[in-house]
Design a protein that fits this description.
Layout: H1 2-10, E1 13-14, H2 17-40, H3 48-66, E2 71-72, H4 77-80, H5 87-101, H6 106-117, H7 122-129, H8 133-149
Antiparallel strand pairs: 1-2
Helix pairs in contact: 1-3, 2-3, 6-8, 7-8
Length: 155
Amino acid sequence: MHVINHTAQCRSILLSNPDREDLAAEVMLTLLQDDFAVLRRFRGKSSLANYLAVIARRVVVRQLLKNRTATPLGDVAESALASDSDVEQRLTNREEVEQLLHRLDNSEAHVMRLYHLEGKSYQEISRTTGMPTNSVGPMLSRLRTRLRGGVMSDE
């Protein structure tokens, strides 16, 4: 479960307990598939624990990419967790977010849109924008503070 939780967290995806169980089942199915073929390919070049962790991570990433309906973390997550009856409210919230983004310059709005509306991870944003991964979080935090307070210039 640690590999599943860590992998989802690195991709900025919030998992429910049933999602975790489904992913764990996928990992187990992969290990059992073709009469333990994955385990027979183990050559001892690393520890068995590392080998299994890599396999689990690959399975989880593959499943998460297949199932992009998972809920992104962040300010938008609360509205995304709402019931289906709140779809109209979520669309209104999205429109409000888009209006707020018009107050930012294009590159800042692009980063905010990637994270909050498209659910991209810091690593994906880094690859898309060329920004260092460790700069994405502070930038998002700074921009959220500016948008909340109405302050539109860095101090």
